[in-house]
Amino acid sequence: CQSLFKTHIGRAALLRGGIIWRLAVSNVSTSDVLAGPSHHALEGKGIVRSNGHGGFLVDDALSIDEVDAICGHYDVY
User: What was the pLDDT predicted at 62?
Assistant: First the structure.
């Protein structure tokens, strides 16, 4: 799980808040969050929102699979 936090996933986890934030906070520096969106988000793999003035805002986001990995979710068949 710690290796996940060294990627864009760590920044997105801190932005997510809640239990996801709590699991990530000891592994991700605040400077990573303040640095702005990662290259991953800027390539169209993050969340996109309208800024209300005809432009768009982009930021890192977590997929369901990434949330599951952070929380230690696994399926048993």
Answer: 92
> Which residue ranges make up each domain of the chain?
4-71
2, 40, 52, 18: CA torsion to nearest 10 = -10
Put simply, whether the predicted model's pTM sits higher than 0.70 gets the answer yes
Cα 52 from chain centre: 23
Max CA-CA distance within the chain? 49
Q: What stretches of 17-56 show up as alpha helix (H) in DSSP?
A: 18-24, 30-34, 39-40
End-to-end CA distance of the chain: 23
Tell me: the pLDDT tens digits for 59-69? 899 999 999 99
Helix (H) or strand (E) holding 50: strand 47-50
